[in-house]
Specification:
This protein is mainly β. Helices cover 13% and strands 37% of the residues. The strands form four sheets. It has a ten-stranded mixed β-sheet with strand order 1-6-7-8-14-13-16-17-21-22. Strands 3-2-4-5-9 form a five-stranded antiparallel β-sheet, with no helix packed on it.
Length: 371
């Protein structure tokens, strides 16, 4: 089966690259070029999309072959490894359905919907999905991520490791317009203003890409200041109702599809952003969480230990009437949930489009709660 998808290759902020080769391996000897996006400008997982004027279809890649020079590291990396084409096809078909329109214009969120129109009509050679890109990210130390990308959802397909490749002086000069790698990279770093960039430890991206098993659980209770605990609503009280949860993770994935799967156990990276929207009668609330990776990593390590496949509930307590908000992790066998300290995240809350709460540690630039 062939599908219509596009390609994009990027790198995280401050880590530009120079490509020698970038292609997907398809059936037989067929190859598909991986289109180069603007590198080193965005966050890990940001995918640059292109205006594509053709509607060619291709089978999903069974491998990838990339060779590049990491400018800041002044090293050449290469990778030629297989990919699970059947898994990509399974993910594609799982979301091969028409996306519902969602009214998301709140708190100044009047962003134009530039998503590609999805169509679940099955054709002889193509089944369209919410995904439209097979994207690749190259990280420091030769890390390579492959994602399925769509406007509402981005899913991880593979996390791979390239090998460092030694180039002869003649190969360097042939590639770099007569220069050796050090001379070329020193000049590029200076021109791009990256002299102060520090190369991260190899374990950083390993930690970013670590997968865990969990689900989100909105706990519909109210905070009792006198007893300093969460209490059930009384029968005569109006219960809050969840509208949706959107989540972005440190592994470059995100989920804004709103099909309820985030409320079920699934495998994902540690959350970097979370949006929760709910209402109580006619009062509509929006909460925006932004997590600190290093601190959250410690909390996850305490809960999961050496078993990231352990099923864990991320409990979300919110009571805007008392401005009390709380997150916690819970797994079977724990005496009580492991509370996530307020220093681990920053939070801003809106009620009927107006800000009603922000955490004491909130220092994000204006409007950055949107993602």
């Amino acid at each position: 089966m062939k599908y219509q998808y596009h390609t994009s290759l990027t790198s995280p902020k401050d880590f530009p690259f120079l490509l020698r080769k970038a292609q997907f391996i398809l059936e037989g000897e067929e190859r598909k070029r991986i289109r180069e996006g603007v590198s080193h400008k965005g966050l890990w997982g940001d995918v640059q999309t292109f205006v594509v004027l053709n509607d060619d279809t291709f089978p999903f890649p069974s491998g990838l072959e990339i060779e590049w020079i990491s400018v800041v590291e002044q090293k050449c990396f290469c990778i030629n490894m297989p990919l699970d084409a059947k898994y990509m096809e399974k993910m594609w078909l799982q979301y091969a359905q028409e996306e519902e329109d969602v009214d998301d214009d709140e708190e100044g969120e009047n962003e134009e919907d530039d998503a590609v129109t999805e169509d679940d009509e099955e054709e002889e050679e193509n089944i369209k999905s919410i995904f439209n890109y097979v994207a690749v990210g190259i990280a420091p130390h030769g890390g390579v991520a492959v994602w399925l990308h769509g406007w509402k959802k981005q899913s991880i397909i593979a996390w791979l490791h390239a090998e460092e490749k030694e180039l002869t002086l003649d190969e360097q000069r042939a590639l770099l317009w007569g220069l050796d790698i050090k001379t070329y990279c020193d000049a590029a770093v200076k021109q791009l203003g990256l002299e102060s960039v520090v190369i991260p430890e190899p374990k950083l991206f390993e930690n970013l890409m670590q997968q865990y098993s969990y689900k989100w659980h909105l706990v519909l209770k109210k905070w009792d200041e006198n007893e300093y605990s969460w209490k059930d609503y009384q029968q005569e009280e109006i219960l809050p109702e969840l509208d949706f949860i959107d989540v972005k993770c440190f592994d470059g994935t995100y989920d804004k599809f709103r099909d309820g799967s985030l409320m079920e156990y699934h495998t994902a990276g540690k959350p970097s952003r979370m949006t929760v929207k709910w209402h109580v009668a006619k009062r509509r609330y929006s909460a925006y969480f932004s997590f600190d990776h290093d601190q959250l990593k410690v909390v996850f390590s305490r809960c999961y230990g050496a078993h990231p496949d352990t099923k864990v509930d991320i409990l979300v307590h919110m009571d805007p009437e008392t401005n009390h908000y709380e997150l916690a992790l819970y797994r079977y066998g724990m005496k009580e949930p492991l509370k996530i300290d307020e220093s681990v995240y920053q939070l801003m809350v809106f009620r009927n489009k107006f800000e009603c709460f922000r955490s004491e540690n909130y220092n994000l630039p204006p409007g950055s709660w949107r993602w």
